[in-house]
Amino acid sequence: MTDLDRQPCAWITGAAGFIGSHLVSSAAQFAPQWTIRPLARADADLLDATAVRRLFQRERPDLVIHCAALSRSTDCQREPALARRINVDATALLAELAADIPFFFFSTDLVFDGRKGHYSELDPVNPLNVYAETKVDAERIVLANPRHTVIRTSLNCGRSPGGDRGLDEQLRRAFERGESIRLFEDEYRSPIPVRATVRAVWELVRQSRPGLYHLAGSERLSRWQIGQLIASRYPQLHPRLVKGSRVHYEGPTRPADTSLDCSRIQGLLSFTLPRLSDWIAAGTD
User: Fold this and answer.
1) What is 9-282's CATH number, 3.40.1080.10, 3.40.50.720, 3.40.630.40, 3.30.160.20?
2) pLDDT digits (tens, 9 = 90+) for 108-153
């Protein structure tokens, strides 16, 4: 088979994780023209630069979607050096290898300090914790190449391979254990079903319009409001929710409102970015 006959290959890192696994499983529907190469930790240690270079040179992917990350803020605060190696150094390596092809990098709404809310891509970043700091540094590396794309997303909901990464899954597990869950009424996000996230990414891949995009749900909700919506899905578990405030939180600093203005990417999509409340009411995964 010649290069002209070869079906283009897409690397998806973090393929055993939440968004990565959905990108892999949704490709047959949304990106059938791509041969998907899922890369989980067992397939490639992204901290082993020599091995990653060798694999890249052997497989010569035509697209890289980089989902792998150390994404729990508490883990990043506890191990900042590891967070930098995974979130910044590994990203820099992949972006270098993919210098001449499309490269998609997942970032976060937490790059903002939360004082404003409804952030657009033009708003300045001001990270408040180690996780967000590493994402900001990685974004700068990625966006230095005009072929490359950064996707800032928010809380994603839906099924994950381990059943514990979606916000709705985490709350359901707590409901099953009979725990009382304290949720902040003064912390706002733009939650989105993961299925909508991956559909939007595949549409953006097809359009070949690199740059910086916000990709989140079309509804600004507090943690408390999100919890109430998710609890309504599981009345049989008798959810117990307690209203709280972020000002009493003793962990890493939490921004008050990182809701996102997604009008830029919305103008390119064939579907309307969903409201979490509509997704809950529809009862889909």
Assistant:
1) 3.40.50.720
2) 999 999 999 999 999 999 999 999 999 999 999 999 999 999 999 9
DSSP string across the chain: --TTTSPPEEEEESTTSHHHHHHHHHHHHH-TTSEEEEE-TTT--TT-HHHHHHHHHHH--SEEEE------HHHHHH-HHHHHIIIIIHHHHHHHHTTTS-EEEEEEGGGS-SSS-SB-TTSPP---SHHHHHHHHHHHHHHTSTTEEEEEE--EES--TTS-SSHHHHHHHHHHTT-EEEEESS-EE--EEHHHHHHHHHHHHHHT--EEEEE--S--EEHHHHHHHHHTT-GGG--EEEEE-GGG--SS---SB--B--HHHHTT-SSPPPPHHHHHHHT--
Structural domain boundaries of the chain?
9-282
Kindly report the pTM of this predicted structure: 0.93
